[in-house]
Amino acid sequence: MVRGNGQRRVVIEPVTRVEGHGKVSILLDEEGRVTQARLHIVEFRGFERFIQGRPFWEVPVLVQRLCGICPVSHHLAAAKAMDRIVGGEKLTPTAEKMRRLMHYGQTLQSHALHFFHLVSPDLLFGFDADPAIRNIIGVVAEHRDLAVQGVMLRRFGQEVIRLTAGKKIHGTGAIPGGINKNLTVEERDFLLSDLDQMVEWSRGALKIAKDYTVENLTKLASFGAFESNHMSIVRDDGAMDLYHGHLRALDADGNRIFDRVDCSDYLDYIAEEVRPWSYMKFPFIRTLGREKGWYRVGPLARINVCDSIDTPEAEAARREFMALTDDRPNNMSMAYHWARMIELVHAVEKIVELLHDPDLQGDDLVVSGERRGEAVGVIEAPRGTLIHHYRVNEDDQVTMANLIVSTTHNNEPMNRAVTKVAQDYLTGVEITEGLLNHVEVAIRAYDPCLSCATHALGQMPLTVTVFDYEGNALDSRSTG
Amino acid sequence: MAKPRIATTSLAGCFGCHMSLLDIDERILKLLELVDFDKSPINDFKEFTGRCRMGLIEGGCANEENVRVLQDFRRHCDILISVGDCAIMGGIPAMRNMVPLQECLDEAYRNGPSVYNPSGQVPNDPEIPLLLDKVYPCHEVVKIDYHLPGCPPSADTLWEALVALLNDKPVDLPYELVKYD
Question: What's the CA angle centered on B25, arms B20 and A313, to 5 degrees?
Fold first, then answer.
C-alpha cells in the first residue's frame, strides 16, 4: 500500500502463533528504508473499571478471564492480594504448597505450549519456511515424536492445574486466605505415575533450545537484540522464586537499579506511559525516566536477575546459560527460548519436590486476620512479573483495580525487537511472506499474551454500523 | 477425497476456548487425520485459503475488527459454531456494557495509580480498530448454527461435537458435557 507522501505501509495482521490480538505496521520510505515499525495491541476489555462494585472474593475467578493461557497467574495474583485484604497472607503450609503446585503446573503447560505448539515450527523449519507447513500440524507430520512430547508435557501441566484448581482452565482453587481443597493421595499418585517421563522430556526440551541457540549463535546474537534493563521478583536470598518474593531490577551490565523492594511499594518504582497508537501502556522505572527506564520481564529477565535457582538441574543450566555472556546479563531476544526451557525444567523439578511433600495432604486450608482496605499481589507469571492492586470498601466491594500484566512490561522491548528486525531484514529488498515472518519470530520470542494486555479500555470514537444479511451497511452512527 | 477444512478465531475472548480445544491432547493427532486447518491463530494463514466445513468462533464482538472477522467466517464456513460463553452471550467482557464508556477511559488512561499521562491523551490511532458501543454476542451479528456453552466448554464437549458434525450426525451431548462449574 502506497501513501501519498511516497511512503509505503506494510501490515502484518493478525500476528499469529501468539496468544491474543496484535498487528504490526511498518512504514518504508521511497528508498525502501524502514522509517517506523510498531506492534499495536488492538483490543481492550475494561476490567479495571467494570470489576468495581463486585465483591472482593469474586475477583480471583473473575479476573482470570483476562487470559485462557495463563488463567492461574491472574487467579493467584488476585488471590495473593485478597489474602492481604482478609489479613490471611501468612498461608498454612498446605495452602501455600497447593498454590505453588498449581503455579508450577501452569508454568509447565504454558512454556510447553509456547515452545512446542507455537514456536517450534520456526526453529525446526526455518523462519521463511512454507507457511503451509510452518505450524504445529507440520511438526506433527515431520517430527511426530517431538509434537507428542509437547502435547503430553502440556497435558501433564494441565492435569496438575485440574487437581489443584478443580478445572484445567478457569479453576477456583485459590480463595482469599488459602485454598478450597488439598491433594488426595489418589490424585498425588495419579500425577506421580507420569512424572519420570515428564522429567525426561523436559530435559530433552532444554537440550533442543540450548543446542538451537548455541548452533545458530552468529545469527541469533543480533536478531532483534538490544541492551535493556531487566526486572523480576526474587526470593529474599536472591534465588529465583516464581510465586513470591521482592522486586529487583538490573541494568544491561548487571548493576542493580533497585533491590529488596516490597511488592506493595511498586508504585514508587514503576509508572506506565500512555501512547496513542496502542491499547497497551508502556511501563518504565521512575528514577530512569521514560527514555531509559524501560525493561524486560519474563524468562530471560528472571534468569538474568536471579543469583541462583534452588533446583539442581535448572541451576546447572542457568550457569551454562550465564557463561555464554560471562555472567553479564544476556540481551538477546532469541535467548528467551533457552531461558524458558530452563524454567520448564525448574517447574518439573519443583513439581517432583512438592508431590513428595506430605503437607499437600494437610487439612488446614484457610486463615484470616486483621482486615485491610488495600492490597497488592505480585507473582512471576510464565511471561513475567504480574502486578494486581486492589482497594476494597467496608461492604466488601472492589473500589479500585490496577493491573500491570507481564506482557505490558515487555511492550517497549517487543517494539524495539520489531523495529530492529524490520530494519535489518526488510530494508531495500522485495518484502516476502517469509521475511515478514522474521518480524513475528522476534515478537514470539517474548511469548506475548496479548489477551492479558488488553484489559485497558481506550478512548475511541464509537461507531456502530448496522448490516443487512448480505453484509451491506444499512446505517451507521458515530460519537466522539 | 479432500479432507474437510476447519477454521478458528478468537474475537473478544481470552483464548481459553482455544486452549480447551488443545486439551483434547493426543486426540489432536486423530483430529488432524480427519480435517485440515484453514485460517486459525495456531498457524500463519492470515486469510482464508478456501471453503471451510466448519468455523469455530471464540469471543463476542467488541470492535469493528471482530465484526469484520466474524462476517468473513460466515462467508467462508458452512457451519458456524459459537464456542463458549463470550461468543454466546458476551461473557465477562460484556460486563463493560453496564458502565459508561467515559468512566472506563478515565480509569484506564487517566486515573489509574500507575498512569503517566500528563497530556491526558488516550489511545486513538487509525491503526487500532474502532470500539463498538457494547460487546455483542455473535448471533446478533451473523447467523450462528450451533452454540457450545462453557467457560470454556470442556475438551470432551468440543471433541464430541466436532466428531458428530464431521460425521453428519446430530450433536447430542449428555448433560455432563453441557453443564460446567
Answer: 105
The rounded mean pLDDT for chain A is 92
- For chain A, the straight-line distance linking the first and the last C-alpha, in angstroms and rounded, comes to 28
Residue with cell 494441565: A158
B34 touches A at CB < 8 Å:
no
How many beta carbons lie within 10 A of that of residue A236, not counting itself?
10
**And the C-alpha cell for A289?**
525516566
Helix or strand run (H / E) with residue A328? none
Domain that holds residue A236: 47-414
H or E stretch covering A141: helix A136-142
Q: How far apart are CA A115 and CA B131, in angstroms?
A: 33
pLDDT tens digits, B11-44: 999 999 999 999 999 999 999 999 999 999 999 9
ipTM for the complex? Answer: 0.94
Separation CA A349–CA B137 (nearest Å): 43
Question: CB distance A457–B107 less than 8 Å?
Answer: yes
Cell 512430547: give the residue.
A149
Give A474: exposed, middle or buried? Use CB within 10 Å, 0-12, 13-18, 19+.
Answer: exposed
Cell numbers given for B175: 448433560
Q: How many domains does chain B have?
A: 1
> Residue A155: its chain B contacts at CB < 8 A?
23, 25-26
Contact predicate A290/A273, CB 8 Å? yes
- Shortest distance, CA A316 to any CA of chain B (angstroms): 31
The beta-strand segments (E) located in A220-263 are 229-234, 246-250, 256-261
Task: Read off the CATH number of the domain in which B32 is found.
Answer: 3.40.50.700
pLDDT of A134-146, one tens digit each?
Answer: 999 999 999 999 9
Interface of A with B in 73-112 (CB under 8 A): none
Q: What is the CATH number of the domain that holds A297?
A: 1.10.645.10
Q: How far is A267 from chain B (nearest CA, A)?
A: 6
In the block, cell 469455530 appears at: B56
pLDDT recorded at residue A3? 55
Give strand pairing partners of B52.
Answer: B77
Grid cell locating A181: 481443597
